[in-house]
Amino acid sequence: MMIWLDGALTDAGTARIDPADRGVTLGDGLFETIAVRGGCIQRLDSHLDRMRAGAAIIGLVLPDVAYPAIFTATLGGNGLTDGVLRLTITRGIAGRGLLPPDIVRPTIMVTASPASPAPGPARCIVATRTRRNEHSPLCRVKSLSYLDNVLARMEAQERGADDAILLNTAGRVAESSAANLFIVRNGALHTPPLAEGALPGTMRAEVLRLTGGVETPLSTDDVMEADEAFLTNSLAIRPIIELDGVALRRGGVAESLIVFSSGASPVV
User: H/E element holding 258?
Assistant: First the structure.
């Protein structure tokens, strides 16, 4: 596999990130996961806008580089027209300590992977080991510090589920371990507000724009009693068919949006 690392394509087997890089030592950085279909990078502007917003929150000065050209070169180096790009930017190399130096050069890494098969409907649990901190500015950032999400997904696997719904500190629904959550109620779409701890997902924004959905604080009972519920992230839209062992209703909105996410126009 060829990756883009700090200005050039290089073989992943010989690529090297400095052990003193703050992305390695402190998780000090950001990432974006971006779908590519037919050579077209999906929602590119939305991903870059979110990266810039996250960088502003954590005080990271992003390198002024031609991201689309880097993405195209990485895809070409791997012979891919369909797949997944991951853009990772760390604060860069620095000595010990929490405070970054006044001058530091960020590390840029881009990888490209083949597309995975579309996921089927999801069986979910409500995570009990961790919660989403809606009071932290990091809940709006795609941070390299992703251990809460890892713990939630590990719990889901141990309990025989595909994903875990994360509650916030108030006990309301925020999102899943790797996706935003929507419900359909009386024909209208609802999703937790960003203030509830939901990540500002690129697909989430697109679904809200297409459907006229609204941001509404949600409880687990709201999900259980919904006409349907589904998950969205940059790579897929996935109906939820079960929560904590209870079967959920299924409708047609998620299926219509899945058609949209594959490149066609939805009927909603």
Answer: helix 253-261
Place of tokens 């701890």: 197
Tell me the pLDDT tens digit for each residue of 20-50. Answer: 999 999 999 999 999 999 999 999 999 999 9
Burial class (CB in 10 A: 0-12, 13-18, 19+), 255: middle
Last residue in a domain, options 114, 149, 167? 114
Supply the range of the domain harboring residue 101. 2-114
42-94 pLDDT tens trace:
999 999 999 999 999 999 999 999 999 999 999 999 999 999 999 999 999 99
Determine the 3-state secondary structure of 56 from DSSP.
helix
Domain count within the chain: 2
CB atoms inside a 10 Å sphere around CB 147: 10
**Residue 184, helix vs strand vs coil:** strand
Residue 268 inside a domain? The answer is no
How many alpha carbons lie under 13 Å from residue 262 in its C-beta half-sphere? 12
CA distance linking residue 201 with residue 122, whole number of Å: 19
